[in-house]
Specification:
alpha+beta, 10-stranded mixed beta sheet, 1 helix, 19% helix
């Protein structure tokens, strides 16, 4: 069976085609419910992705890409650097006021460092793992050779002292104990006990 189409119109002697016909779908209650489910699913997927990225991904990446582990009283030798933890301790009294409703503990870690290549290291590259505190604590300040700041000269051995401030709720009876010092670049974990 052959269906006849109306002749195509001529425009300035050129044959033009009719635009293709599209089927318009009529909105229905069923399609509206499915759209709501798709939007809800998309929002839940984004929220779950954000939560995984914030909470689950950092520990997973730490395990995959790992840290070089250095036992207490041992040296880290690598990447043209020699690093050793000389001592770690806690101040007998807090050295400042805690945040409201918190209890403060001040920790100090002393290192000897020799770098045989330039090294752009920041105070915040050092974190302290403390038993009783969920997140690692970033160093608050450092001194190098007794002078304020973190300055690792090329080819010289220097003594660096890092200061960490740990805060826990005032009602907490947790005994805080420094377990390990972590360095971000290169990735190294120094056991303190």
């Amino acid at each position: 069976m052959h269906i006849a189409h109306p002749p195509c119109p001529l425009l300035n002697g050129i044959v033009t085609q009719h635009p293709p016909r599209r089927r318009l779908e009529q909105p229905s209650a069923e399609k509206e419910r499915r759209t709501g489910c798709l939007v809800t699913g998309a929002l839940l997927g984004v929220l779950v992705g954000i939560m995984v990225g914030i909470y689950a991904l950092p520990p997973i990446l730490r395990n995959i890409y790992g840290e070089t582990k250095v036992a207490a009283d041992e040296f880290y030798r690598g990447d043209a650097r020699i690093i050793r933890v000389q001592s770690a301790g806690r101040a007998s009294e807090p050295l400042g006021d805690p945040s409201p409703g918190m209890r403060r503990e001040d920790f100090f870690v002393q290192l000897t460092i020799r770098s045989n290549k330039t090294w752009a290291v920041a105070v915040t590259d050092f974190t302290l793992e403390v038993e009783g505190v969920k997140d690692w604590i970033k160093a608050a300040e450092a001194t190098t050779g007794g002078e304020p700041g973190l300055n690792i000269p090329f080819g010289e051995e220097v003594t660096v002292e890092l200061h960490f401030i740990a805060e826990v709720p005032a009602g907490s009876s947790a005994t805080l104990a420094a377990e390990a010092l972590h360095l971000a670049n290169p990735r190294v974990r120094f056991a303190l006990q």
